[in-house]
Amino acid sequence: MRFFSLALILAMAAIPFTASAEHLKSVDPKGIDPNTPASQDFYQHVNKGWMESHPLTPEYARYGQFNILNDSSNNRIRRIVTNLSKKNPAKGTNAYKIASLYDAAMDSVRRNQLGATPIKADLAKIENTDHDGMTDLFLWLHKNYASPLFGGGPMENLANSKEYAMYVSGGGLSLGDRDYYLKNDKRNKDVREAYQKLIERQMMNAGYSKKDARRIVKNVMKVETLLADSTWTREESRNIPAMYNPRSIAQLKEMYPNLPWDRFFIETMGIETPEQVIVTEINTVKQADNLFASLSDREKKDYYLWQYVRNAAPFLSDSFSDAAFEFNKVMSGVQEQQPRWKRALGVTEGYLGEAIGELYVEQYFPQSSKDYMIGLVENLRTALGKHIIHLPWMSDDTKVQAMKKLNSITVKIGYPDKWKDYSELEIDPALSYWENVHNANMWQTKKALEKWGKPVDRTEWGMTPQTINAYYNPLNNEIVFPAGILQAPFFDPEASDAENYGGIGVVIGHELTHGFDDQGCQFDAEGNMSNWWTPEDAEAFAKLTNGLVEQFSAVEVLPGLHANGQYTLGENIADQGGLRIAMTAFLDSQKKKGVNVESEEAMIDGFTPKQAFYLNFANLWANNIRDEEIRSLTSGDVHSLGKNRVNVSLKNLEPFFESFSIKEGDPMFRPASERVIIW
């Protein structure tokens, strides 16, 4: 069973960040472009030198500061993992499991010899199922390999985050976004064509004839297009209250009479049929119910075959990964596959991430970094509190509730207090790579289902310690900063306070602000979906957020393609909040230290401290990117493009204008009447 998840963990960035140097510098004056004034294009001014010295290589669709840091982290983790094999770890230990799974991922000779053999028996099971066994087949797939037509599983109850609720959600779209199936512009047509080629090629890799593969393509496109037609738009998917549709089991069966609900819960999940289920997308599940009843056995089988093969393909022979890469070229513009070791490391971390993380923090995360972060977070919390108290658009009653929520935010830094137990996960070198991955998937599913009926464990982490990212979880009302992100250019013990506040300080402020963005603001101090706003304050907030939507949507990212300010609203609110809060916290910290940030003695490499703050913030988002990736991210990423995260956000901030003498008429200037200040 593949569990769905609500889009509720709000992170700093969307890509798995992925460098060579052990110590990475923060602001580098050599990267400044003297020919582009800060007042004209601040992103270009700060990053042109970096962009010229880091051209895109064929492996990347985009390459930026995050990739450099991720490469550095990957090299560290690679050394950890490969050294485990050399030590001949005892069978059954975490070290043994890490080394064995990584070695299986790296053993392309064995995988290429096996070809599609590891999946042949399961494909035959699907093909040989008669009409009477189709429901059994559907449940078998849900339990073991995929989530055809819809998804389901336990997750924190939106209305009572201390307990788990059972959710049922739409699903079944391999391409993820409905527009790829339904829109007829050139971009979406190209993606559909490439997708159909992918299905045909993978099914032929699995042993099907070209004729049969083309039939499978036709039936898959029919099913997924019908599902897409009932799926929410990207903008609709951000409406969290609309996802909360509690139904009794009797109501569920009445709404969707064709699906085998009791068997789904009892046989697939191994639990008693719950008394209540929360349906996240009513019409999408209805379409799944209709298709389950109306599709022919052949159409179902072909759709199921593709669901299975799509999930298994990354763990089979190179012919499968080569086909997937050809599709990825169309989606992102990347020209070369990542080296095998990076792909192998990604899979190993995906299943044994905390076991690797425990080894990582022993070597690379000193207590001094954690101590610094604890102080920094509290400085940022205090700064946000000052902002809330002085907000001109919010009433005193709502401010009380906002402060209550702010003061209740839990902070997690570096690594979990309790490490994940992998003792029941079996990795057997005698099995194929796919069999081991499947066993790992089943172990993860079992652990997820074991949560049902138990209180929510708020000590769990949603990221591994080595991850170069951070997140806010509204259901726990917590901000989390893994050890991996506590490196330059985010955090550098050798850098100035100005650079660190402009780096990790903005990240902290960003995550704190997520608690008050267009989604986070719908949850209270306990992590429950609850309206703590007066109607007047909610209206004022909506007016401000609409202004921010318009600012970002006005940006043309490619000829004829505009940014989606509505879809990226939460991240844009958090970016702006992070900048404002971090600057306040920085100035307060310097005042406590008796530092005059306007003095000549406070200059940093020829820049004032305020300038260094903004320079390092812009430096975080330096990257080169392909047009195909711009289109893909604009369609499917809740984060704005790096350039917009810098330029559009900064054009609202008076301290930024003052720091770089930006005045009316300059491209980076926005008149006071048009600025949007939220938090």
- Average pLDDT, rounded to a whole number, is 93
What is the highest CATH level, the class of the domain at 31-60 and 366-406 and 489-674?
Alpha Beta
Q: Give the radius of gyration.
A: 26 Å
Total number of beta strands: 12
Structural notes for this entry:
The chain has 679 residues and is α+β, with helices and mostly antiparallel strands. The chain contains 26 helices and 12 strands. It has helices at 42-53, 65-86, 94-106, 108-114, 117-128, 134-144, 179-182, 186-205, 210-229, 240-243, 249-255, 261-269, 282-294, 297-312, 318-332, 340-364, 367-389, 396-408, 433-449, 497-514, 535-553, 569-593, 609-620, 627-636, 642-650, 654-659, and strands at residues 10-11, 62-64, 150-157, 160-170, 245-248, 276-279, 410-414, 471-473, 478-482, 556-558, 561-562, 623-625. The strands form 4 sheets. It has a 4-stranded mixed sheet, covered by helices on one side. Helix 6 packs across helix 12. The two termini are 41 Å apart. 47% of the residues are buried.
